[in-house]
From TrEMBL:
Keyword Transcription regulation among UniProt keywords: yes
Source organism phylogeny: Bacteria, Bacillati, Actinomycetota, Actinomycetes, Micrococcales
Name of the featured protein: TetR/AcrR family transcriptional regulator
InterPro entries for the chain: Homeodomain-like_sf, HTH-type_TetR-like_transc_reg, HTH_TetR, KstR2_TetR_C, Tet_transcr_reg_TetR-rel_C_sf
Organism: Citricoccus parietis
Alphabetical UniProt keywords: DNA-binding, Transcription, Transcription regulation
DNA-binding region(s) from the entry: 40-59
Amino acid sequence: MTTASAVPKSPRRGRPGYDQDSVLEIAVQVFNRHGYDATSMGMLAVELGVSKSAIYHHVPSKGDLLRLALDEALVPLEAIGEDVRAQKGGTIERLEFILRSTIRVLIDRQPYVTLLLRLRGNTEIERDALQRRRTVDHKIVDLVVAAQAEGRVRSDVEPRTTTRLMFGMINSLVEWYRPDGPVSPAQVEENAIAMIVDGLRARA
């Protein structure tokens, strides 16, 4: 999917065996395993099998690693709302596009989205990321309200609660979905859309 694909990156070269992307990938695994607050640069160095100074060759601080990791989740999620398919057309069709695209990002960027969803807001970087996430959610609330006003979404559901329930189900993918499991990404997507969109449609 073009909309939710990775933002193009210029090549980054570092010390032998690692570049910034590979350091980031392993750092996210450690953050998710131990929690960001509990992870030290020393722990990351042990995991990477390098010295702390070698990590600093790639990034200035642990906070910079966190910011880069969160952008791996937030940038494609934010891009969904900027796509013309999320802005023009029928409200139900726009909602379905956003939900499908979000599911694809969660599956494609699972470790990074996991980190985003586990933030506690203890640092300015975390609080900024949480605000960006809330901005994305608020756009969905507005879309559900618009669909309701058009008579496309049933009138007996509360938009903010509905949005929380939708994303509660979708976000749970980071906890249970496994790429090597028996269920394909396409099956997950179709099942979720059937439950959410069909469940929201106004009854004739």
